[in-house]
Amino acid sequence: MLYSVVVKLRAQVDATISPTRGYHAYALFLEMLRRGNEPVAQKLHDLEGPKPFTVSPLQGKFHRQHSGLGITAGEVYW
Questions:
Q1: pTM across the whole model
Q2: Residue 21 above 80 pLDDT?
Q3: Does residue 22 surpass a pLDDT of 90?
């Protein structure tokens, strides 16, 4: 059975974030899972090879900043 979960985040302030290839989203996913079921989160974290899930990098309206990606207060990112 396949599932898709989209987490929407609303920026509270203008800020600059570092561009990544999804590592922060991956860490957030495991942290959210850990809070609900720590043994499952640890098992998924420790798996070697392909994981039974995928996590996408943050999406939304960004603007270039000299040190990263600018996000705007009130905008929704997913």
A1: 0.75
A2: no
A3: no
* Per-residue buried b or exposed e for 7-41, using 16+ beta carbons within 10 Å of the residue's own CB: eeeebeeeeebeeeeeeebbeebbeebeeeeeeeb
Q: Are strands 68-71 and 63-65 parallel, antiparallel or unpaired?
A: antiparallel
Place of tokens 């499952």: 40
CA-CA distance, 25 to 32, in Å (whole number)? 10
Q: Is 44 helix (H, G, I), strand (E, B) or coil?
A: helix
- CB under 8 Å to 2, separation ≥6 — which residues? none
Q: Coil, strand, or helix at residue 63?
A: strand
**Nearest C-alpha neighbor of 70 from the set 8, 14, 29:** 14
DSSP 71: E
